[in-house]
Design a protein that fits this description.
This protein is an alpha+beta fold. The protein is built from 11 helices and 10 strands. It folds into 2 domains: 243 residues, OB fold (Dihydrolipoamide Acetyltransferase, E2P) (Beta Barrel); 57 residues, Orthogonal Bundle (DNA polymerase, domain 1), CATH 1.10.150.320.
Length: 317
């Protein structure tokens, strides 16, 4: 046991990447004169101006600097690039409304890169007890995507991501935001858009991936290590203001009922799922029953890409 504790102490004392310590910035306000979009904006707090990027989510772009990213975003929502840019503006306005009152920022100053000359950092934003990332996904203005973290008083990142996917399923079925095709057809935004501000093009565009931060990997391994050999969780060495998003714990508890039961759903309900048209929905109905969700792969026309989009949204019992 002493040997194991020694290993743990060695790991935690010798591998401590920058950005380990979370800080809480209270009574923050949106810097309204600066550039922003749905998931990236400037914040004023304590007389200083900061640039933050949300953990966990990705909102559609509001200009055409990154065509590959726009294409990826539009494919996710099943809309055109023009429509995706329109959703980007709607996401921007949604964030403005959410942040019209003072809010709280949780950050550990992890560099989010970006095209701005001012350094940008990842952050969790809490406003009136709500998590901005959750609200954007629930409204259909963002997808669960990007950098993740285990933030203070929140769930583990994998649980938070799972909840975001459930919220996205609900947004999809209620045709909210980007999932409302009829609303997006009302107006087409020209793709001949230029950035709203001057910018410095980075050497390479920040990748659209879901990287694991080094400290997250170490924290996860350390948690597993301690849970194996002790019955007590690792005590926090960080004294931080306790801020818990009220919606998170409630929504995490709700949820199998919100998933689509592929054994009982009507053809119309199946067609609301991503990548499922009338023909595929009919094949699903004729292939029932399914013992497990993986069995839907046997339906002709459902490949790995389609299944990966369906998996967090369906159930069999």
């Amino acid at each position: 046991m002493r040997f194991l504790i020694a290993i743990f102490l060695f790991v935690t004392s010798t591998i401590v990447p920058a950005g380990e310590v979370w800080e809480t910035l209270s009574a923050c306000r949106l810097a309204k004169e600066d550039y922003m979009d749905g998931d990236s904006f400037h914040v004023e707090c304590g007389g200083k101006n900061y640039h933050f990027r949300l953990y966990f989510v990705d909102c559609p772009e509001t200009d055409t600097r990154f065509p590959d990213r726009i294409r990826d975003q539009s494919q996710h929502f099943g809309i055109t690039p023009d429509q995706s840019i329109k959703v980007g503006f709607k996401a921007k306005e949604f964030t403005k409304r959410m942040l019209h009152r003072p809010f709280t920022v949780l950050t550990r100053w992890y560099n989010a890169r970006g095209a701005s000359a001012q350094e940008r950092f990842y952050a969790v934003i809490l406003c009136d007890g709500k998590n901005l990332a959750e609200e954007l996904v629930a409204a259909g203005f963002a997808r669960p995507f990007g950098m993740r973290a285990n933030f203070p008083d929140g769930p583990r990142s994998k649980d938070f991501i799972a909840n975001l996917k459930r919220l996205e399923g609900r947004a999809m079925r209620s045709r909210a935001g980007a999932w409302s095709k009829s609303e997006l057809d009302d107006q087409v935004v020209s793709t001949d858009l230029t950035p709203e501000r001057p910018y410095s093009k980075p050497e390479s565009d920040p990748p659209l991936t879901t990287p694991s931060e080094p400290f997250d990997q170490i924290a996860s391994q350390t948690d597993s290590f301690l849970e194996t050999f002790t019955s007590q969780p690792l005590p926090s060495t960080l004294q931080i203001e306790s801020v818990k998003p009220a919606a998170t714990q409630q929504t995490l508890a709700s949820n199998t009922a919100s998933l689509v039961n592929i054994n009982t759903a009507s053809q119309t309900e199946l067609e609301e799922l991503p990548g499922i048209g009338p023909a595929l929905a009919e094949r699903i109905v004729s292939s029932r029953p399914f013992a497990k969700t993986d069995d839907i792969r046997k339906v002709k026309g459902i490949g790995d890409k389609t299944f990966n989009s369906l998996a967090p949204l369906i159930r069999t019992d």
